[in-house]
Amino acid sequence: MATIVLHGGAGNWPPEKHTAARAALERALDAGVAALARGGNAVDAVVAAVEDMEDEPLFNAGTGSSIGIDGRIEMDACVMRGDTLEVGGVCNLQRVRHPVAVARAVMEQTDHVLVGGEGALRLARALGFADWDPETPDKRAGWQDRVRTLDEGGDAWLPRMKALLERHPELRRGTVGAVARDHEGRLAAATSTGGVALKLPGRIGDTPLPGAGTWADAHAAISATGRGELVMRTLAARRVAERVASGSSADEAVCATLDELARTVGADTGLIAIDRNGNVSIRHDTPTMAWARADLEDAIRRSTGVVTAPRRGAPRRPPLDDPDDAR
After folding, report:
1. 175 in active site
2. For residue 317, is it within any domain?
């Protein structure tokens, strides 16, 4: 059985955006399912799904990415193939439509793992990736409002950031990702993000770092979302895979890793994972996480949601027509 699982970011999804988020995830799921249905491998599926999410301004990846404190958009992405441990990533990449496609090119067309900044942009142009402005009017207007909030909040950073988050809860939302198991049992993961809103120039999060926000090997494929600095400090994705390799189920491994994060560095993370047997986990420690899943057998079974339950209670496969769990 082939399976693909997506996330559209963990954080704070306002209830009024749940319907739009689910519809966007359905479209991305269609792209991933189509790749698998026509005989594509797990890498084809996760890249197709993430590219679709990069085209949706609702998500913080590709078009509609967050704008940094300096007014620029810098994007990160990663693709990893589990059966060969091949991986490619880009960081601080500007002005491309699909950062995840450039990350795949790094994996398949270079001898490198991670390329950043101006070098990543030069590589993208050399490989034929056209110029693309990922900024949207809504994101620019929101950036201006957030900068004003910071400017009016005094000198202390934390009080200003607290006020900013209270005023703009959507700042906690970010990153898109996909994990898949293809018909041959091969695993892959892909993750893409515009990064943290108002981030410092040059900031790199967990997304492009193998083992942190993205990982795939023979045992499991994982994509993370949430506070990247927490994920980086614990190598959360690799920890999930190690637990699966030691005999845990995907769900046991994800829950244990989230517990470890909460105990050691803080609880503000979402994880999706699939193991070599096709078992799936969708868990989070944030107020909400948008997700979708499809299983390809004789018929295609699908489910989506924007869950607000805590990680231990997050639904694993609710019917597609279930109402949103927003409270």
Report:
1. yes
2. no
